[in-house]
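From the methods appendix. Each design record in this collection lists the tokenized structure first, followed by the designed amino acid sequence. Records were kept in a plain field format so they could be parsed without special tools. The example shown here is representative of the layout used throughout.

RECORD:
FOLD TOKENS (260 positions):
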């Protein structure tokens, strides 16, 4: 049984009338979000694949057509933002009306890409056990980007700290999650050398904050549970919505027409 998101509002805004959306709906019998994270994220040359920041594209892989979509940094500056939104609300990604929807089948996947998914200088970030790998693929010192680093790659200015020093990241749509700030400024070196009142303790040392080196990467592969067309609110929008519905009806996926 699929569960409707509690609210349609997302960090990228509300869905538009006559818009077509590929969805991954939440289910009380589904897999945890971690099951769909690509770890390590897979680097991708977006120019080679003909991908752009706006507009999803259908890509054939092994005889199956998939939806490749770049998640924009304008609304989701951090990879963890979109992962946590999907955890709370499922996925909803807008598709162009001129796609060949007949190519989409139950085997099709929603392949999500982010410009900050691959962190090339991953070894400069915190390591296990401080970082928890969401898929438990990386349990020792990292030899490649671990998806767990996404929750440690957020500037402190984008987080809110409570009285206990715990940090929270909040994004539009009433989604919040725990994270830790990217290394910046003074840190405890862990070495002894600072003596206060005759007690030797850890010394403060000046370190350079991590300067991330990013690469576009595939960070999630999600099943497409259905396609949804948003109903119109007036006569003109209703005509456009009906046209969009006829276009997506070529797909073998479940199709819904819904109010926003």
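DESIGN:
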């Amino acid at each position: 049984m699929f569960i409707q998101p509690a609210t349609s509002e997302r960090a990228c805004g509300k869905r538009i009338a006559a818009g077509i959306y590929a969805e991954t709906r939440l289910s009380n019998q589904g897999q945890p979000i971690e099951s769909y994270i690509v770890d390590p994220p897979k680097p991708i040359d977006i120019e080679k694949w003909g991908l752009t920041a706006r507009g999803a594209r259908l890509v054939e892989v092994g005889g199956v057509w998939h939806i490749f979509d770049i998640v924009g940094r304008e609304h989701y500056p951090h990879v963890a933002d979109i992962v946590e939104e999907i955890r709370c609300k499922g996925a909803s990604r807008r598709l162009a009306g001129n796609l060949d929807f007949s190519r989409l089948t139950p085997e099709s996947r929603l392949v999500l890409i982010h410009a900050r998914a691959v962190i090339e200088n991953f070894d400069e970030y915190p390591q296990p056990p401080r970082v928890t790998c969401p898929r438990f693929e990386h349990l020792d010192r990292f030899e490649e980007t671990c998806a767990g680093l996404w929750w440690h790659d957020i500037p402190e200015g984008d987080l809110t700290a409570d009285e206990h020093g715990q940090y929270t990241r909040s994004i539009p749509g009433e989604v919040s999650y725990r994270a830790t700030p990217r290394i910046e400024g003074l840190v405890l070196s862990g070495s002894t050398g600072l003596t206060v009142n005759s007690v030797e303790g850890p010394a403060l040392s000046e370190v350079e904050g991590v300067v991330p080196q990013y690469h576009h990467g595939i960070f999630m592969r999600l099943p497409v549970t259905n396609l949804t067309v948003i109903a119109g609110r007036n006569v003109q929008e209703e005509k456009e919505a009906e046209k969009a519905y006829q276009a997506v009806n070529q797909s073998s996926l479940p199709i819904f027409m819904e109010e926003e």
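APPENDIX NOTE: Confidence is low (pLDDT under 50) at residues 186-206.
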